Amino acid sequence: MKKIFIFPGQGAQNPQMLQDIKGYSLNEIKPVFDTVSEACKFDVISFLESATQEKLSLTNYTQIVMFAMNMAYVKVLSGLGIKPDVTAGHSLGQYCALVAAGVLDLYETSCLIRERSRLMSELKTHGRLCAVSSPCMSIEYVEQMCSDISKATNDCLQIALYNSNKQIVVGGAKPAIEKFYEEIKENVEYKATILPVGQAFHTPIMDEMLPEFRNHVNDISVKEPSIPVILNCTGDYYIEKNNGEDLKNELIEQCHKPVRWLQTMNTLLEVENPVIIEVGPGHSLSGLFRNLTKEVKVWCSEDKKSVMMLSKKINQE
């Protein structure tokens, strides 16, 4: 069997998540939180113990605590004999996948995420995201709508996240998103929800942060992956070349280009005998896999009972 770790991103956070992981062992995961806290200059555990959902939703906090939680679950699973053979991450989760695959360093990546989240939260140009779902989704139909509205409004509008065959997220300037929302609602086959975030992540609205972010990306060290890892912008495996310069460009491009999670899932389903584990809070990625196929079970790391069953199964083989 091939153990595949998939990491959620911003949006999977909840006020209960620290208590859920404490169900394992806080002592075991404390070094991870300490490293992230040192890099990001605030105590992650103390923050999580008192944070409200509103505060957890602030980008400059969310990305840091989600990264810390995801990497803490890697430590938990490793202690139970569950180590990845392949990794992939959704949006912010890509950073976790790269650290778990040995490509990036935990401390350096924590520093990079600190700057990434700060730059995103300080953007002067604000955008919106709109989630769209349908049991008979036509991605081409939504892409054409985005193109037409973008031309009509002279504003940015595009698919930001290709989440599954039944769900995508459209991002862009506020006027364009509002027009898109009103038009898509007229189609009874589609359900649309404007998300409670103040930025259009993974769209060109993020462009103004890229020059400064590039400086921070250039400071990190990149190593060859110890296991295969899949990237967001392509939905395909990362191949190390040019001394890591291609990966650095990917991290920059990921800020303003779509997340191709549907392609990522299809790539993962080509793995022989996959055991897929959602590593982090919640089960958002499990739901996206269920949209695509009912034939593959996705285990959730926050479900201790299921994880213990999986650990026993793996360690018996």
What name is given to the CATH topology of the largest domain?
Answer: Malonyl-Coenzyme A Acyl Carrier Protein, domain 2
Provide the helix percentage.
40-55%
The overall pLDDT average reads: 95
How many strand segments? 9
Low-confidence stretches: none
By oligomeric state, this entry counts as single chain
Radius of gyration: 19 Å
Determine the N-to-C terminus distance. 9 Å
In CATH's first tier, which class of the largest domain applies?
Answer: Alpha Beta
CATH architecture of the largest domain: 3-Layer(aba) Sandwich
How are helices and strands ordered from N to C?
A: EHHHHHEHHEHEEHEHEHHEHEH
Shape: globular
The proportion of residues in beta strands is 5-15%
DSSP summary: helix tally: 14
Going by CATH, what is the homologous superfamily of the largest domain?
Malonyl-Coenzyme A Acyl Carrier Protein, domain 2
Count of domain modules: 2
Family: Belongs to the fabD family.
Catalytic activity: holo-[ACP] + malonyl-CoA = malonyl-[ACP] + CoA
Protein name: Malonyl CoA-acyl carrier protein transacylase
EC number: 2.3.1.39
Describe this structure in words.
The protein folds into two domains: 2-122 and 205-316, Malonyl-Coenzyme A Acyl Carrier Protein, domain 2, CATH 3.40.366.10; 127-198, Alpha-Beta Plaits. The chain has helices at residues 17-22, 26-40, 44-50, 53-56, 59-79, 93-100, 106-121, 139-153, 174-184, 210-217, 245-256, 261-268, 284-292, 304-316; strands spanning 2-7, 86-89, 127-133, 157-161, 167-173, 191-194, 229-230, 274-278, 298-300. Helix content is 48%, strand content 14%. It has a five-stranded parallel beta sheet, sandwiched between helices. Strands 4-5-3-6 form a four-stranded antiparallel beta sheet, with helices on one face. The mean pLDDT is 95.
